[in-house]
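We store chain and fold; thus.
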Amino acid sequence: MTAARVTLCFLLRDGDSGPEVLLGLKKTGFGRGKIVGIGGHVEAGESDADAAIREVREEADVVLRLEDLRDAGVVRFVFPAKPEWNMDTRLFTAARWDGEPAESMEIAPAWFSTATLPVDRMWQDADHWLPVVLEGGKVNIVVTMDDDNEAVASSESVLFQQ
């Protein structure tokens, strides 16, 4: 079974107490109830970067340009108990955009300190790779989920620092 192509984009800013990242409470669909990155599936004929730009606009009402995106690597998610959930996820960060994040039908966006991410409310894999991305690094990681589709069974990575 082939993995779905997905993108996530993490908007970064300097907040009052230090660096912050835009994440969102997922209101519908896959991951409902979790705090997630902004993103989604890559549509046919669409590049990963174009999908990230479209998803951020649809989910958070923020406009990005191609030159605003920084490639932060790839996470392959493997769900042995539910292979139809397997995903190849291209990661991006952006420090420039137009507009203020606003709630959509799918996501309620909020800013979080990069030093104290809400990992207890996120997918359990997040602390395996997200801190590296938020510090400006690039990841190449395979995360295999446990049979409960929640816990991380293993993660194998090659970390690149930019």
Observations:
- The chain is about 15% helix and 45% strand.
- The chain has one domain: 4-160.
- The first helix runs from residue 48 to 60.
